[in-house]
């Protein structure tokens, strides 16, 4: 229902824009001034009708680009008058190009139509946004993208998948996959994953383990389909988790983890993450003395909050020496 409301609003706005464009066209065709329709009448006092040279055109285009960048900067700052100020910055540059030559009603109509198209695209971006490219987690040079990478992809890359069968809270972390609590998946399409999305919780730790050569590399949640059960091989990675024990094992075995090329096992300074992730870094700790604040939050989202497109989140917890102690990367599947 929510999707239909958004689509309905955009459809209504598109029809309104088309109606305004056609209405203006027919009005300019039928309205006469001195025996000629307004659409053929000059709308400025400029008398030059020659074509612009490349140099002159570049000057006007440069002015528009600079004005557009300033307007975008003003809009990003926010504030009640930011839209009015952005318009005041951009409009003179556009009108300077428009008035550089003699223009008729046709040029004015084209300008209005271009404005309506830009307004529609801005509205669509405001309501729906654009799909985000999923972040890439690399384990020893093997890329993994949540909501994209499947179990088959992992198996083909040489990883082993272990499925939890029984609980044994007394077993050591290093012995999880050899304790009998987990069964190595034989990749024979014999296991089905229930439909729907299920998040990990503390009562069911490590539901699925990914390993290679007997070394645990992390745990993960899988997603098949919203409406039907899915064979495990065809399921996608929904979330990937590294806890403190897994991180310690990774360091002992020289295993590397990188997020979009950044080494997660290196010293994680705030400036380093800001430079790497920019606007995607939404949570930065203010006080290292407070253990509850010692994490970085990352988000790859859009304006519709996974209503139309997938969204991606990452949490990186760290200690007082700026070394990672916990990591989770997960995706929100687009849905209502």
From TrEMBL:
Keywords: Membrane, Transmembrane, Transmembrane helix. The chain crosses the membrane at residues 6-27, 57-75, 81-100, 107-130. This is Uncharacterized protein. The lineage of its organism: Bacteria, Bacillati, Bacillota, Clostridia, Lachnospirales.
């Amino acid at each position: 229902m929510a999707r239909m409301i958004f689509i309905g609003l955009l459809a209504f706005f598109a029809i309104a824009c088309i109606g305004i464009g056609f209405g203006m066209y027919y009005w300019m065709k039928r309205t006469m001034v001195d025996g000629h329709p307004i659409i053929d009448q000059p709308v400025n006092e400029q008398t030059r009708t020659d074509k612009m040279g490349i140099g002159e055109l570049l000057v006007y285009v440069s002015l528009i680009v600079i004005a557009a960048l300033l307007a975008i900067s003003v809009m990003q700052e926010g504030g009640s008058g930011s839209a009015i100020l952005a318009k005041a910055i951009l409009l003179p540059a556009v009108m300077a190009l428009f008035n550089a030559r003699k223009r008729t009603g046709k040029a004015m109509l084209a300008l209005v139509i271009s404005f309506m198209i830009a307004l529609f695209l801005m509205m669509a971006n405001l309501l729906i946004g654009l799909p985000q490219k999923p972040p890439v987690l690399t384990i020893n040079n093997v890329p993994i993208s949540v909501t994209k990478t499947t179990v088959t992809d992992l198996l083909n890359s040489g990883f082993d998948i272990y499925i939890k069968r029984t609980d044994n809270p007394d077993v050591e972390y290093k012995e999880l996959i050899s304790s009998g609590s987990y069964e190595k998946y034989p990749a024979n399409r014999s296991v089905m994953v229930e439909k729907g999305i299920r998040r990990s919780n503390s009562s069911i730790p490590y539901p699925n383990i990914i390993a290679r050569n007997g070394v645990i590399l992390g745990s993960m949640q899988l997603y098949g389909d919203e409406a039907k059960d899915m064979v495990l091989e065809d399921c996608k990675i929904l979330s990937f988790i590294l806890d403190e024990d897994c991180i310690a094992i990774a360091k002992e075995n020289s295993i590397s983890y990188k997020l979009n090329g950044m080494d997660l096992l290196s010293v994680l300074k705030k400036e380093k993450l800001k430079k790497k992730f920019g606007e995607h870094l939404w949570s930065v700790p203010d006080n290292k003395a407070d253990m509850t604040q010692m994490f970085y939050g990352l988000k790859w989202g859009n304006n519709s909050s996974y209503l139309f497109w997938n969204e991606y989140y990452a949490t990186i917890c760290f200690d007082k020496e700026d070394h990672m102690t916990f990591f989770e990367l997960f995706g929100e599947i687009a849905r209502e």
